[in-house]
Design a protein that fits this description.
The complex is a heterotrimer.
Chain A (H helix, E strand, L loop, with lengths): L17 H23 L1 H25 L9 H12 L6 H15 L13 H12 L35 H6 L10 H8 L5 H6 L11 H13 L6 H20 L7 H6 L3 H8 L10 H21 L6 H18 L13
Chain B lengths: L10 H45 L3 E9 L4 E3 L11 E8 L4 E11 L4 E9 L4 E9 L9 H4 L1 H5 L4 E2 L14 E3 L9 E3 L5 H22 L3 H5 L3
Parallel strand pairs in B: 8-9
Antiparallel strand pairs in B: 1-2, 1-3, 3-4, 4-5, 5-6, 6-7
Chain C lengths: L5 H11 L10 H6 L4 H24 L9 H23 L1 H7 L10 H9 L6 H31 L1 E2 L2 E2 L9 H4 L1 H30 L1
Antiparallel strand pairs in C: 1-2
Helix pairs in contact in C: 1-7, 3-4, 3-6, 3-7, 4-6, 7-9
Classes of the chains: A mainly alpha, B alpha+beta, C mainly alpha.
């Protein structure tokens, strides 16, 4: 005890630790959740709740089986759950949400050794799995602001486990929303060449996943985290910037074929992905130049998948691909150590 | 084992052993081939008939033909198809009348080749039905071409009549976006399964463009089989 | 080490040296043809037949095959029986033949076969050689069946083509796609690893 502890710098601790950061991320997502519930009512609330609880359950079962310390208290499973729920369509059957939650934690995180060891964003692993498993359910969209949204669920929400969700075309008709097309703005652009207005995107008047609708809200929540330095502001800036640049280039060459850059930026999950998914600390690079390249990779791949791929949305796979590239980007972009000469590494 | 000193084997012994093994194996293969050939052929014939009967419900018998630049020739009695030949099936009903022509169309889909068998009505000059021979399209999306009633309606009477010079289709078969079908030669794609729908259209177009010009001048020969 | 009995030879491949779950061999058919239980069992039995027959022949000829040409001889023998199986399946069922596709021919390149011929049949008399090979084959079949069951139940809601959950079952499309093979194989490997872990811990606990 009388020994002097010798340690290398840094010596001062900012006071923020993993649970604090994680808790703040969760707080910052609450407005987005609230907006989603206001839009889609009971179904969205249940989906967020059930997915988050199943993530927590997966985490608890895992720590019980493996006999490791309880990892529930670090709040990371809550983030995964909420994020995952926000990327799912509000009409997603709850039992599929449970599958997504368990896959996210087990396949996305636990198998790799837990928090910080996972090469891929767990929420996106969960989403990728259910997208491959239930392609129809995950591309079924419902209109927002239906009159009875706070008293009744969307019929698909309460599908019995392992059963396929009922057809909701009839239900949508009953809601008196004649203009509703059942396709996201991106699908409409891709297949029918119809663009949606920028204002609708900003205020969330579009068909989308539970938490992807309002660009303004995501921006505000993201900025809060960036301001608190809980996320690296370079990542979202780089993602959005590169996506805009690539989209602008295409738009300049063929304006009638490719949509305006603002459409690319605001549609689908790009905003949510850029601010909340790509910035996951465990799966993004840490070197400054690596971070810029990482963000640019996400932006470019997203636009490429949307324009030339078979899918309408590319953010998920773009982030997963960039996650895989993150260690490599760090390796090649090590900053020069003070006093060493370049090219000697 | 590997530490044992290298045993010098005479070259003759090696050749003799390999030869012996080859002879034994050769006999086994030929024997099994001869034994299983009739059963395998019968199976293949059954499978073909099952598929043809699905697209031409009035069918009772099937005769395989090859169509070449020079004309058409029955496959029976030929060991090898003639060079550049396209295979097709002349289908007869219970009264031995030509019920239609069946042929295979294949094109690259989302996952692998999508192979369909289509029925061609010689009177209407139209395709009157399709059936899938094989595909590996995504279940729940691409395999809707088997079940989607709106899509299958395209093939109740898909116009493939030839142009005046009998060299090509008057209107190329084309898959169009869902809901924009305007001609009898167009296929209304399944919304959300466009790639597979297009593969079917492309395959049928390629197949009919080659087969029909070769086939039509010789229809009489098919109507009165010897 | 005393010579293992014939029965031990047979059991070896089924459990202790299971080709799929313990040795992780023959992954090509394991991942490709396990979309249904029937396919899995057919593939497993086809492989079992080739294994048994080729190991028997290799063992019979083991004294007359010079070391220098042994691989060539084994491959010719294995290829022969694969061809036999190929013809036989065509004669039995064309549907099955189409479902298994190129993977019947690819049995020739299955590393379990050459592995058994080289490591066991070439050094042992016909009886144990064949029993060991058939045991391996059954172990392989068991592994394929375990994977095929899970994939068919989740991917189609059926087992042996019999519907289990009624018409409203929601199929997990991913299970009949290639990734499903990886997921289910990994799942079983985890189960086996956990079992092994548990057993080792218990044995150690008894000794202590």
């Amino acid at each position: 005890m009388s020994q002097i502890e010798l340690r290398a710098a840094p010596h001062q601790h900012s006071g923020s630790n993993v649970p604090t950061i994680m808790r703040n991320v969760v707080y910052s997502m609450l407005p987005i959740c609230a907006f989603s519930v206001w839009q889609y009512g009971l179904s969205a609330a249940l989906l967020i709740l059930v997915v988050t609880i199943s993530c927590l359950a997966a985490e608890r079962i895992n720590s019980t089986i493996s006999g490791t310390a309880d990892t529930l208290s670090d709040w990371s499973a809550v983030i995964t759950g909420v994020l995952l729920a926000l990327t799912l369509p509000p009409s997603f059957p709850l039992w599929m949400g449970v599958v997504a939650g368990f896959t996210a934690i087990w396949l996305g995180k636990s198998l790799f050794g837990g928090l910080g060891q996972n090469p891929f964003n767990p929420a996106l692993i969960g989403r990728a799995f259910v997208q491959a498993a239930f392609p129809t359910a995950i591309s079924t969209w419902v209109p927002a602001f239906t009159p009875n949204r706070f008293v009744e669920c969307i019929p698909t929400t309460l599908t019995a486990p392992f059963m396929s969700p009922p057809d909701i075309v009839h239900w949508i008709k009953l809601q008196g929303m004649d203009a509703f097309t059942g396709a996201t703005p991106m699908a409409r652009w891709k297949f029918e060449n119809v663009s949606a207005s920028t204002m609708d995107f900003l205020t969330g008047q579009v068909t989308a996943s539970a938490g992807e609708t309002s660009a303004i809200l995501i921006l505000v929540c993201g900025l809060y985290l960036a301001f608190k330095k809980y996320l690296d502001w370079r990542i979202p800036v780089s993602v959005m910037g590169s996506a805009m640049l690539v989209a602008a280039a295409f738009h300049l060459v063929q304006p009638d074929r490719y949509p305006a850059p603002t459409f690319v930026l605001l549609s689908g999950g790009l905003m949510l992905g850029a601010w909340f998914m790509a910035t996951d600390m465990a799966t993004s690079p840490i070197t400054p130049r690596g971070v810029w390249l990482y963000g640019a990779l996400i932006g470019i791949v997203t636009v490429m998948i949307r324009y030339f791929g078979g899918l309408t949305e590319g953010v998920m796979y773009a982030i997963l691909i960039a996650n895989a590239a993150a260690p490599l980007l760090d390796q090649f972009n090590q900053p020069r150590i003070l006093g060493e000469t370049r090219g000697k590494s | 084992m590997s530490d044992a000193p290298e045993v010098k084997t005479p070259s003759f012994a090696m050749v003799r052993t390999l030869g012996l093994v080859s002879v034994i194996c050769g006999i086994i293969i030929v024997g099994v081939y001869q034994v299983t050939l009739p059963a395998a052929d019968a199976n293949r014939k059954l499978a073909l008939e099952r598929q043809v009967f699905k697209v031409l419900p009035t069918a009772k018998s099937v005769v395989t033909y090859y169509a070449t630049e020079k004309g058409i020739v029955a496959a029976a009695g030929l060991d090898q198809p003639p060079a550049g030949a396209v295979i097709f099936y002349a289908v007869y009903d219970a009264a031995k009348k030509l019920a239609g022509i069946a042929a295979e169309a294949s094109s690259a889909g989302y996952a692998d080749q999508v192979r369909v068998l289509y029925a061609y009505d010689t009177e209407k000059q139209a395709i009157t039905g399709i059936g899938v021979i094989s595909m590996r399209e995504t279940p729940g999306i691409g395999d809707k071409i088997l079940t989607d009633q709106d899509f299958l309606k395209n093939f109740e009477s898909l116009d493939v009549h030839l142009s005046a010079d009998l060299q090509s289709l008057a209107n190329a078969v084309k898959t169009v976006k869902h809901g924009t079908k305007s001609g009898a030669w167009q296929i209304d794609a399944i919304s959300g399964a466009t790639v597979t729908s297009k593969a079917v259209g492309r395959g049928i177009n390629e197949s009919t463009q080659i087969l029909l010009p070769r086939l039509l001048p010789h229809l009489e020969k098919l109507r009165s089989p010897s | 080490m005393s010579a293992p009995s014939n029965f031990d030879e047979f059991l070896d491949g089924i459990w202790k040296q299971n080709p799929i779950f313990v040795m992780v061999l023959g992954m090509c058919p394991t991942l490709a043809v396990t979309v249904s239980a029937v396919n899995a069992i057919s593939m497993g039995l086809a492989t079992t037949f080739v294994l048994g027959a080729s190991c028997l022949l290799v063992s019979l000829l083991r004294h007359s095959i010079p070391k220098q040409v042994r691989i060539a001889s084994y491959i010719v023998i294995i290829a022969t029986f694969v061809t036999v199986v190929d013809y036989a399946i065509q004669a039995i069922s064309l549907d099955l033949y189409e479902a298994l596709g190129a993977y019947i021919k690819l049995i020739v390149a299955n590393c379990i076969l050459l592995g058994r011929a080289e490591a066991h049949a070439a050094k042992n008399p016909p009886m144990p050689a064949m029993l060991n090979a058939i045991g391996m084959g059954f172990g392989f079949t068991l592994g394929l069946f375990a994977i095929g069951c899970v994939r068919e139940i989740l991917g189609a809601g059926k087992l042996f083509d019999i519907s289990l959950f009624g018409p409203h079952f929601q199929p997990w499309v991913v299970m009949v796609l290639p990734p499903g093979g990886f997921f289910v194989l990994a799942g079983w490997l985890i189960v086996f690893a956990a079992f092994d872990h548990y057993k080792t811990k218990r044995t150690l606990g008894v000794q202590a």
